[in-house]
What we know:
The protein is 4% helix and 45% strand. The chain has one helix and nine strands, in the order ββββαβββββ. Strands 1, 2, 3, 4, 6 and 7 form a six-stranded mixed β-sheet that branches. The longest helix has 7 residues, at 90-96. It starts with 11 loop residues before the first strand and ends with a strand.
Amino acid sequence: MQSLPRPPITRVVIACAVVLIAGQVARARAPFKVGPAPGWVRRVVPSGDSNKASAQAGTSSTRILDDQQIKVSGASVERYYHYFQRVDNTAGLDDLSQLRFYFEPSYQQLTIHFVHVLRSGSVIDTFEPSEVKMIQEENELDQQLYNGTNAAVIFVNDI
């Protein structure tokens, strides 16, 4: 049986931003928050046309922007992460359709600002807070090591 040819990939860019606040152990709270970026964050946008950035051989996506900003005040550290990732082939669609943000809830608080899909010049807000899945990531249990790391998993639909 002959398979049907796949349609060409429309250039898709996934953009997201999150803040991790680490400090003293806080009271019981929701696993993550949703809100705007803090006032101290400098807005950074990718320079030039994201379609012109050359794809590297053997990769499924290309990082267009990798913005990390840190604010230290007293006993707390805030880390802001913002990135744009361009899908280069069908494997990239699979890779970027599931985003994971790792944090240790005993001393970190995760705030998710946005998850956007940029397609053909249009920005699509794909973030639905009720669809975030919280999972406990314990990669070293086979060595009897427990570190308490959680992951907020976001399934990006319609890419």
